[in-house]
Amino acid sequence: MAILERSDTGAVAHLRMNAPERLNALSDEMLAALQGQIDTLREDRAIRAVVISGAGKAFCAGHDLKQMQQGRQSEDGGRGYFADLFARCASVMTGLTRLPQPVIAQVHGIATAAGCQMVASCDMAVAAEGTRFGVNGVNIGLFCSTPMVALSRNIPRKKAFEMLTTGQFIEADEAETLGLVNRVVPAGALEAEAAALAEQVAAKLGTAVRIGKEAFYAQSELGLDAAYAYTGAVMVENMLERDTSEGISAFLAKRPPSWQQ
Description:
Number of domains: 2
Mean pLDDT: 95
CATH topology of the largest domain: 2-enoyl-CoA Hydratase, Chain A, domain 1
Strand order of the largest sheet: 1-2-3-4-6-9
Helix content: 40-55%
Order of helices and strands: EEHEHHEEHEEHHEHEHHHH
Low-confidence stretches: none
Radius of gyration: 19 Å
CATH architecture of the largest domain: Alpha-Beta Complex
Structural class: alpha/beta
Largest sheet: 6 strands, mixed
CATH class of the largest domain: Alpha Beta
Strand content: 5-15%
């Protein structure tokens, strides 16, 4: 049984973390499997959207604490193992953000610590009612410093700091209000809602969405004038695409576009 399952529906890739007995913890094996799929999807032009979910009763409970304790047994007290672990985790998280395809987290149960980081690292998220989110490492003496990077780029600073320093959960409705998730739906509708959102995105011109996703994150790190200069240049390149010209012509002619990509 694969620790990470992939099934494709048309232009949508569905990745399901499949270690329910460990609440889909980000073990060494899970991180390696996720990285492998990220590397594969990066080159797959047939896939236009990605959905990530978790098997069992939770989306993801964060790092595998038992495995981390085992890593501490090395001669250097775990320094090398921990540095490598957090580097590999960062590669997965930034890899999700840098994939050319939009990535949607389909979240249920709990998303804690690095699991919450994964939700924040995805481009969009749909959560089931009753889902709880937390960066709870402080409760066991480990401040969630790496999850903080993605979380603080999704929700207001003061709320992020409160979550990080108190270790308290927030409920799905508050996560939606704060902007951590896009929408909250009944548990029975979660899979269908995430799939519908992915299919809506996948129906758009793939070239335009790839260009737009990269520009979305790049411009957010720039000052106002630099952001406009950068995105103006991006739009020039987008306008020069054959399929963009076809899309505009089809709109003006009130007919469906005939896109090649």
